[in-house]
Amino acid sequence: MLDASVKKYFPIFEHHPNLVYLDNAATTQTPHSVLEAMSEYYTTYRANTERGLYALSEQATTAYTAARQKIAAFLNAAPEEVIFTPGATYGLNLLARSLAVTADHNIVLTRLEHHANLIPWQQLSNRTGCELRFIELNKDGQLDMATAADKIDEQTRLVSCTAVSNAIGTIAPLDEIIALAKSNGAQVIVDASQLIAHSPIDVRTLDYDWLVFSGHKMYGPTGIGILYGKKQLLEQTEPFLFGGEMIEDVNYLTASWAELPHKFEAGTQNIAGAIGLGAAVDFIQKIGLSAIHEHEQSLLRYTIEQLPEYAALIGPPSGAPRGAIVSFLLQGVHPHDTAEILNRFNIAVRAGHHCAKPLMKYLDIPGTARASFGVYNRPEDVDRLIEGLGNVKRILG
Amino acid sequence: MEKLYHEALLDLYRHPLNKTRLDNFNAMQTEHNPLCGETVEIFIQSSPGGQVADIGWQGDGCALSQAGASVATEQCKQKSAGEIKNLSTDTILNLLGLANLNPSRQRCVGLALAAIKNALAT
Ligand SMILES: Cc1ncc(COP(=O)(O)O)c(C=O)c1O
Q: What per-residue confidence (pLDDT) applies to B4?
């Protein structure tokens, strides 16, 4: 368990001392250090990057570049493999726009995917005629790897898969999926949105091709995220957004692209966001990802142990591995009402389909209520949640 | 807090009104609430004079949407499309005593009324 003093890093709890914030899968709170890094940029060296020849612009460029280096080191990637984006959604759309896919290809997804890792592929399928396939779930909410072996074949161009389901907490067996994809010559895209702030990621050990995530789910600001791509793949891939700062040479009828990573960063970037994300990586590393993982897993176990008998756990069963997410349904209570009543006790959870509407249909449930954890959560937060569920039951049961 | 989930509302949640799929209907409409994934289906049988002669609905949702659908369908009975146009989500909120509901939840309450209006517009 992390020390209770971690909470002091987050100003939100000064403004809302009584808040039980259990919606970390939607977005995490921001520590002082991230706010200060961004504020320092805005107040002491604001300038555009890569453009000016004056000192402030140099300073901004240096800070922006340093942020990229921190994130690269965090992932064990090279800096030119780390592309700043506005977030996971953007990264997935970039790939769906840029990767070469034809009508003969198929793209394999899973039943778990967030709309951000579904709709861009539907659109690509509409444009190209490629087929979409889905790895099924077994009754424990885990990916059924027998169906993965069925669906991934030599015509598979891409396998795009969430590392952890934001809706039900399932952990995908990425090692098996990557091995299966590679043996069929397919590239793998990992949506690490729900993993990045919870477990260490090393893009080299598992031989990732592509990885996306959002900064705002890892104690960073909104509007910034990362697309990691293996250098050789990024070099082969055409950009889909064109404009300033991404070019090497331009004349009125043609242009050629700048080197990586700039080829994929057209226009003025979210400079403050990138600097803030660099500070968020520093924050996570100061606390330590292994310690964070331990902390959240123990809160998770405690929550599941305490869940009352009128609560049904959705997704992996008790004791099975899961991300820092507990999704549940109270008997006879719509999850929306659960969240509304909890809100009245200052407890923030998410309710609904969690941007995974097809998954809710697939599981034949109206949605779920979801508690998701972060560094500042305490066992007392879980106690308040459980007490809150008692109130829901009393009012609506 | 108990005010939002007051007895009358809970009663409509536990015993919704008009929650049935009509066998005979001449207008039908499905409406979704993207926020929470609720869906409500409305069935309307109009009289030759253009009034709502019979109305039913189906759908699973939160207490507010269930109560909203009950009240909206009750309010529309025997009314013409023109009269129904004048009903608003506020009408339903007031009838339910939920005038200060936050905007995201107002959509839950108003979902059935929106479906009814769209059913009569098509
Ligand atoms: C698994 C997963 N993928 C993608 C996204 C989309 O992230 P963003 O909205 O930050 O682009 C989310 C966020 O909810 C998510 O949980």
A: 80
Reply yes or no on whether A161 is catalytic.
Answer: no
Average pLDDT for residues A307-322, to the nearest whole number? Answer: 97
Tokens 């994809």, located at residue: A181
Which ipTM value was assigned to this complex? Answer: 0.84
Q: Name the residue facing A337 among B35, B37, B62 (closest C-beta).
A: B62
Which residues of chain A make contact with B35, given a CB cutoff of 8 A? 352
* Residue A379 to residues A2, A152, A304, A382, Cα–Cα distance (Å): 11, 42, 12, 5
Kindly state the tokens that stand for A164: 């952890």
For residue B2, the distance in angstroms to the closest alpha carbon of chain A comes to 8
Q: DSSP string spanning A292-360? A: HHHHHHHHHHHHHHH--TTEEEESSPTTS---SEEEEEETT--HHHHHHHHHHTTEE-EEE-TT-HHHH
State the Cα–Cα distance between residues B65 and B88, nearest whole angstrom: 15
Q: Answer yes or no: is pLDDT of A372 > 80.
A: yes
Is A87 a pocket residue for ligand 1 (Cβ < 6 Å)? yes
Cα B116 to Cα B70: distance, rounded to the nearest angstrom: 12
| Euclidean distance between CA atoms B106 and A109, whole angstroms | 35
B-chain residues near A366 (CB < 8 A): 37-38, 60-61
CA-CA distance, B57 to B62, in Å (whole number)?
15
CB A350 within 8 A of CB A339: yes
From A93, A58, A60, select the one nearest A270 (Cα to Cα).
A60
The predicted model scores a pTM of 0.94
The model's pLDDT over A377-392, given as tens digits with 9 standing for 90+, comes to 999 999 999 999 999 9
Task: Work out whether strand A225-229 and strand A82-85 pair parallel, antiparallel, or are unpaired.
Answer: antiparallel
Tokens 């108990």: give the residue.
B2
Give the nearest ligand 1 atom to A26 CA: 14
Cα separation, A52 vs A320, whole angstroms? 54
The phi, psi pair for A255, rounded to 5°, reads: -150, 155
3-state secondary structure A343-362: HHCCEECEEECCCCHHHHHH
The pLDDT, as a whole number, for residue B99 is 85
Nearest to A225 by CA among A257, A177, A192: A192
Locus of tokens 């800070």 = A63
Torsion of CA A40, A41, A42, A44, to 10 degrees: 70
pLDDT at residue B55, rounded to an integer: 97
Task: Report CA A86 to chain centroid distance, whole Å.
Answer: 12
Decide: A156 in ligand 1 pocket, CB within 6 A: no
The Cα–Cα gap between A163 and A183 comes to 20
Specify the residue for token string 């990057």.
A49
